[in-house]
Amino acid sequence: MKNPAFKLGAAALLIAAMALAVALAQPKVQRYGSIIGLKPDKIETYKKLHAAVWPEVLAMIKACHIRNYSIYLKEAEPGKLYLFSYFEYTGDDFAADMARMAADPVTQKWWKETDPCQVPIPKREGKEWWSPMGEVFHAD
């Protein structure tokens, strides 16, 4: 006679093993938020650029393990515009991937178009352009 408890235990073990396999197959995700100012006279230029992002720039973003990349615009005070970016990083070496992106000639040309629209926030570390933000809360 087969033991029904054994059958149930084996099924539970199989389900747990499958769940673990799915979890291990999922890339680990690091979330990043950052902020920078936007020059008021450059709003339309910036929006126009981002309405038609160059395909090579998008390919580099993807190649550097970035997904769900979004940029938001907010006038926080009259005449004070800020851009907030959010993306998820799924790679294993963020610094190396960002260096790869920064070394890409097409990305450098893109930044020559976008950088004149932006102004780093007054309170930032060293020479950083977009200032990283600390995550306070997240829920899946």
For the largest beta-sheet, the strand count, sense and barrel status come to:
5 strands, antiparallel
Query: Per CATH, which architecture?
Result: 2-Layer Sandwich
What best-fitting shape do the alpha-carbon axes yield? elongated
- SS strand fraction: 25-35%
Q: Number of helical runs?
A: 5
Query: How much helicity do the residues have?
Result: 40-55%
Query: Structural class, from secondary structure content?
Result: alpha+beta
Task: Fill in the CATH topology.
Answer: Alpha-Beta Plaits
> What is the averaged pLDDT score?
88
Distance between the termini: 45 Å
The parts where pLDDT drops under 50 for at least 5 residues are none
Backbone CA Rg:
22 Å
Element string (H = helix, E = strand): HEHHEEHHEE
Number of domains: 1
Number-wise, the strands total 5
The CATH superfamily is known as: Dimeric alpha+beta barrel
Report the top-level CATH class: Alpha Beta
What does this entry show, briefly?
With 140 residues, this protein is of the alpha+beta class.
